[in-house]
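User: Could you check the structure of this?
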Amino acid sequence: MYLECTCVGIGLNRWNRLMEGARPLNYDWLVRRIRKHMPDLYEALGLNYYNPYEEQTRVTKTHYILVHSSIEYFIKK
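Assistant: Sure, the predicted structure tokens are below.
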């Protein structure tokens, strides 16, 4: 599990490929996984605080998609 990229600067074609087949994912579950496997990202984003974008959390066959501060974080499974 690692941060592959964010939506910043990847281009629309790549964004569409990464979002293909995305479906909702439980935000709290993903945050627990990030805390365990990616503690630096957990701390950097302050995931222990309220996130108004938590409803936009998604999952695809290959990625977890966390939205924080209007930025999509594509986390490779």
